[in-house]
Specification:
Elements (H helix, E strand, L loop, with lengths): L3 E2 L5 H10 L5 H11 L14 H10 E2 L5 E6 L5 E6 L5 E9 L2 E5 L3 E2 L17 E2 L2 H12 L6 E4 L9 H11 L12 E5 L3 H10 L3 E5 L5 H7 L8 H10 L8 E7 L7 H11 L4 E7 L13 H13 L3 E4 L26
Parallel strand pairs: 1-2, 6-9, 9-10, 10-11, 11-12, 12-13, 13-14
Antiparallel strand pairs: 3-4, 4-5, 5-6, 7-8
Helix pairs in contact: 1-2, 4-5, 6-8, 9-10
Bound molecules: S-adenosyl-L-homocysteine.
Length: 344
Amino acid sequence: MEKVDLKNFDLEELEAFIARHGKERFRARQIFKWLYQKGAVSFDEMSNLSKEFRRELADSARISSLVPEAVEVSMDGTRKYLFRLDDGNSIESVLIPEEDRNTLCISSQVGCAMACEFCLTGTFSLTRNLSTAEIVNQVCAVKKEAEVKNLVFMGMGEPLANLDNVIRALRIICCDDGLQFSTRRVTVSTAGLVPEMDLLGSAVTVNLAVSLNATTDEQRDRLMPVNRRYRLKELLAACKRFPLPGRRMITIEYVLINGVNDSLDDAKRLVKLISGIPCKVNLIPFNEHEGCAFKKPTQQAIDIFHKYLLDKHFTVITRSSRGTDISAACGQLKGRLDSKGGDL
Ligand code: SAH
């Protein structure tokens, strides 16, 4: 019989599993703490469980973990981790150091089915969803060597296309007995899967980022095929009704591409589209990559776009690209999809 991986359970599911073994529910909390706060990788370490219970657990369950196969460090301190999965596929996570906090960017799928024109990951199509364990193990692995304050689901894949596993991972990540992240410090980013945005919002409390990237349906159809399924109007309505506690805001991400969506007219249309949505705007100058004809915007275009939004009283951040020298920047992750299992 195949052993179940305990890292695929949220706390409630682990409690049910423990109950099936005839043990007290609170044992699940103890195990959770061992897994996520002490980083246990074997049952032997769990010294507050009886030897007999540990043996029983080891008979029916296992504890998975990820160990980085390679770590690349950028000149700006950004670290890109390559993880090999059990089936030979690989994924990447990126740790972005900032003055007083580190942000970890994690993957939710091997490859991606969204096929956005400007994104390198999208050119490799979808191989498979990550399991809950594979999602949380990226955090566990990086936490072993660095403090992680913020978490963003902005690596490879479309998190909302792997909704069940992402929700379960979020429950573990934000659980007091689990990875103990504050929900304020965790952000899920989506290309705009409208029904799943609603499901996510009703299942968990988390920050939402939406990759808008265009200001007309025509333009967005061309850049992001998902727009043919969910039009701008529907997407923005879903943003409006997304439940956010207190004064939290949605993040609107907008990749600026030279001559495509970076004009002042675009900025004006963008303001019209998002007024009425409590949001802040992240402008991401396009990161060029081989095989993609798009070009990065000029500094002047960035400045004009940025200033227009500021003048309209939006909170705007133009994201400086981090880790470009190691292909760790937005839209540059591929987890060696082109050389699966090949040499490093
Ligand atoms: N699928 C999700 C999660 C990936 S996040 C989503 O689309 O939101 C990756 C972010 O990087 C997205 O906002 C995307 O628009 C942006 N991006 C993709 N390729 C890029 C590139 N070449 N240059 C700059 N940003 C890019």
